Amino acid sequence: MRKIAIDAADIRILRALQQHSQLSKTKLSELVNLSPTPCWIRFSRLKEAGLIRGYHADIALDRIANTTTVMVTVSLEGHRKENFERFESYIFQVDEIVECMTTGGRYGLRPESRDAQPFRLSASH
Q: C-alpha distances in angstroms, 125 versus 77, 87, 122?
């Protein structure tokens, strides 16, 4: 993949978007200390280059229902590509898993659930 050169103003734009998600053109330009038109041109270039992949909302689930967040570590038997693909395919179907990280063949999962009991078991499957 081709790399794109960015400068300090581009970094300020990306940082502002990370912290505040969607912003108006005026508000973004104020935050990064650029006038609106040059700021929007830079924003458009960064977006077209694929540096801005989307916008996300941080949902306060605790305001909707009582939830428990747990951390689960999973080690797969064998480090074959098929095992990783099958496991990843499965976890993307589990609504309770809100985050998944992998390092060196181990997965760290962050499920949120009304009850932590199902996650207290340690099993080899």
A: 9, 11, 10
**Cα–Cα distance measured from residue 117 to residue 96, given in angstroms and rounded to the nearest whole number:** 14
What are the φ/ψ torsions at residue 82 (nearest 5 degrees)? -60, -40
Cβ neighbours around 17 below 10 Å, total: 20
Q: Do residues 59 and 95 make contact, with C-beta atoms less than 8 angstroms apart?
A: no
| Tokens 């989307």 belong to residue | 54
Which residues, including other chains, have CB under 8 Å from residue 115's CB and lie 6 or more apart? 68
Which of 27, 43, 32 is closest to 9 using CA atoms? 32
CA 56 – CA 107 distance, rounded (Å): 23
Per-residue pLDDT tens for 11-49?
999 999 988 878 899 999 999 999 999 999 999 999 999
Q: What is the mean pLDDT of the chain?
A: 85
Of how many residues is the chain composed?
A: 125
Nearest C-alpha neighbor of 43 from the set 57, 29, 30, 56: 29
> What pTM was computed for the model?
0.56
